[in-house]
Design a protein that fits this description.
The protein is of the alpha+beta class and about 90 residues long. The chain has helices at about 1-10, 35-40, 75-80, and strands spanning about 10-15, 25-30, 50-55, 60-65, 70-75, 80-85. It has one domain (about 1-85): Ferrous iron transport protein A (FeoA) (SH3 type barrels). Strands 1-6-2-3-4-5 form a 6-stranded antiparallel β-sheet.
Length: about 90
């Protein structure tokens, strides 16, 4: 499904590339890294709606709003999360 979205409209980006304030949905988490389990435990699961609420002045960390809570992740961790914008 991920490859279909990329080829069809180019809708999938990593969370580290997104500007704050836009509503997003998690598409997938890269499983190439040990941090994927931590991100899944925090709630970054496919289908969950999120929004980048704040970005630190130097760009790291990123604060994400999800299910009424704020979660901060490093930009390197955000790069593991693939998201799609909600129209």
């Amino acid at each position: 499904m991920r490859h279909f979205l990329i080829k069809l409209k180019g809708l999938v980006n990593t969370l580290g590339e997104i500007l704050h304030g836009r509503p997003l949905v998690v598409v997938s988490i890269s499983s190439d890294c040990a941090r994927a389990g931590r991100l899944a435990a925090l709630g970054f699961l496919p289908g969950n709606r999120i929004r980048v609420s704040r970005v630190a002045p130097l760009g790291d960390p990123i604060s994400i709003e999800m299910d009424g809570q704020e979660i901060s992740v490093r930009r390197a961790e955000a790069a593991l999360i693939e998201v799609s914008e909600i129209p």
